[in-house]
Amino acid sequence: MKPVKIAMMSLTHGHTRKYYQTLIENAKLDWVASCAEDPRAKETYELYQTGVPCYLSADEMFERHPDIEAVVLASANDKHLAQVQDCARRGVHVLSMKIPTFDMAEYDAMIAAVDKAGIVCQIELEMHYNPVVHRLKKLIADGAVGKIVSVQATNITLSPVWAFPWQGVPEASYGRRVPLKAGDARCRGGALCDHPHIFDLIRHLTGADFDFVYSSVAPNLRPELQVEDMLLVNGKLKDGTAFLFDPSWSRMEERLKVPGPGWEVFPKRMEVNVTVVGEKGTLVCDCFGPNVYHNGAPNDRYTVQYTYFDEWVGMIDEFAGCIREGKEPLINLRWHRPTLAAMNACYDSVASGGPCVVG
What's the whole-model pTM score? Predict the structure, then answer.
């Protein structure tokens, strides 16, 4: 298969090591260019010495590299609609970061633009390609636990705000400034916006959509943030499956502008754990299961070896294959839309103090 000529579009921070490694090493891609949102992000990008040119304008990038076939959309959430429409106009395929938009009218405008242009638009939800999740899906499909009764899952990390500032700005993350609830100074746009993976994954495991959700936020571990960092969500799917999710920023971090040694403070920074209870048994999965070497003093630092680059192999293979073969990716805009509707309902539940039906 001829490699897809790909670019990174609108880098907001310049630090995306796993993306760079994948774009360089995957034989199905030819990484030709990048563009950054501002000089600071470009300076950070240049620290990684990729050898791939970086511009400060998407127009200049496309002008200098008219052979670009696809982009990784690395911008803040509030920029996605305009950029997807721009890519559709150019006939450029899109691998979008995990939240296309929380505004459902904007979401439908993206679908319309993608459909009209006939481009591939895949959503970056790498957990679908995680080797442990693949094993979990196969066991469920083979009837190992029988009919699923409930799912409990965590998607917990440190807060990315210090390195990726837009994720702490409600207008950039959620798309507009919406208070969490009456009397609460915080706004929508924090940890929930960062962790759609388990919401999408439960739909994939069960084949069912959300019925209702009930969500509650805790006081922030980081009181200076404008957005939420700790919450729980429970509810049911339309097939009766009950669930309990923890999508929090419950792991603390040292506040470095560029993540590196010292960013990871004990305990380990990222966990996705899934427990599936069925009528015949239970499956418990640690989807990342990294090897952690605790270095101790002075700051509880540790060294970690993650396996999650494996997920990007399958995700990129599918993206490139869909472009070359004219297929639709598994995690496309239409598929992902009910997940965003459920996450909006979580915020509505926080605001109302009660359960919310997912529309």
Answer: 0.93
